[in-house]
Structures are given as structure tokens and as C-alpha cells.
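Might I ask for a little of your time on a matter of protein folding? The record follows directly beneath this note:
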Amino acid sequence: MKLAAVDIGSNAIRLQITHVTHYENQVNFKKLEYVRFPLRLGKDVFHNNRISDINRRKFIKLMKAYKLLIDLYEVDDYMVCATSAMRESENGKDIAQEVKQDLGLKIQIIDGNKEADLINVALWNYIDHKPYLHVDVGGGSTELNIYQDRKKIASKSFKIGSVRALDHMDSPKVWKAMRSFIQENIDKKHRITCIGTGGNINKIFELSNPRKNKRYLDIVKIKEVQAYLEGFSYEERVNKLNLNPDRADVIVPASYIYLSAMEAANSTRMIVPDVGLKDGVMNILYDKNKSKSIV
């Protein structure tokens, strides 16, 4: 069985196609294709409340390309999810409707809670009975989820993201509200561990030179990587550190969001599992289709 997930974010748009098989009573997910295209819809929306005509045309071309790949791989089922940029855009629904009419590709514009729920599906292997704060930083929003005894006890989406912060479109009131939400909902009697998801924390993890089989960062190490990155200009991050241009400018603003959440929770450690929205979508699609024969 082949499944496809498209994540339409504020900073980039991703497609993943996965082959799911059964072997010796085990389910295996094998990535067949992964494409990340740096179309920054958030820059339009956070400044002008709408997606520009230029980016609308680029977006439709990209959806055509993704639809061709989905068809060529003969995908059995797919899900296309759009997050903060399209849900805040005054013409986001119209563009989604245009894509559906012209390409037959259905785009689901999801709210922050749905976005968090999809990501959470992919996190269960990392959550036990201890308290956890999950921090997912995107280009336009940050989703927070607090767990205790493997149950989600609080969840909220905030309009703080790497692109929004880069362009100074973030509000001090929202930062304060995010920290207050964390402090009001965690159990201060127990040390809480954070779980970080999103492309920026994955890159920070990579830059930290982690030990083999280690999937966590101490807060001191995150601050070290942050200071290291701030020591380079944007051009140097692209040319000396070999960061993608659309990563080089947002990674530092994103690091401040992760650190702010950790400090509000008085947490010193962040697990970085390298999963995201697309992984949760794959799990949802598999559960929906697992009754079908898998070859």
C-alpha cells in the first residue's frame, strides 16, 4: 500500500510518499519520495493577510507537480493539510477550491488543534507516564501540548512562529500568554521533559554534533548552538554552514521560541524525535486503510 502526505506550511511545502508493508507480523513504513519546496506563503499572509498572485501561481504549479508524483507512484490514499498561512489568508479557501476544481486535489485547511493532534499521533513512541511538554514550532504558529500519564491534559496554539518572528509580526502579549499557559498547566512538583518538533529544532540538533543514538538536547547545548548561529551573518550561514536559504534566516528566531517554552516550564532537556505533521498523517492514513490487503 502506498500513502502520500502533503504538509502546506508557512515556510515550506512538503510531500512524502510512503510504501507500507507487512512482514513477519510487523508493519514497515518505507519512504519512497520526499520533496520539500521553499515556498514561503507566510511572508505574504502575515503582512498582507492574503497570498499574493505570484505565490498563488507558484503554489498551483507546485500542487500540479505533487499531484503528478502522487499519480505516478499510484498512491492508494493521500491527505493534504494546510496550516497557519492558508488558514489565516483571506484567499486561502478560494485557492484550495481552485486546486480541487482544476487538479482534483483536496486540501484540508486545519486549525491549530487539529495540527497538534496529527503531530501527536507520531509522538506516542516517545511518551511514557512522565510529564512532557511538546513544542512544535512552525513558520506561523507554535503548538503546545502537555502530557501526564500518557494523557494530554492541555493543548493550545499560539500565533508565534519562525517566519512571523523574523518579520517582527509576533506580539509581546502572545509571548506572555504562551509562557503563562505553560506555567499554569504544568505540575511544578515534577521535572518536565520537553519534546521538540519542526525543521528548525531538527537542524539545531544536527548542528549540535550529537552522539550516536542520542535523540535529545540539553538546554545548555541549544543555547550554545544558538550563539554559534548568531555569530554568522545570513550569507555565512548559507555559504559556510551550508544551510538552505529559507532555513538560514528563521533558525535563530525559532530557537528563541523553543528556549522560551523550556524556560517557562523550567525544563532542562528536549527530546528531538525527528517526526512531524506528515508522519502523523501517514499513521492516520494507515489506520484508515489497514483493512485493505498490503503487498
Summary: Residues 5 and 278 are 6 Å apart (CA to CA).
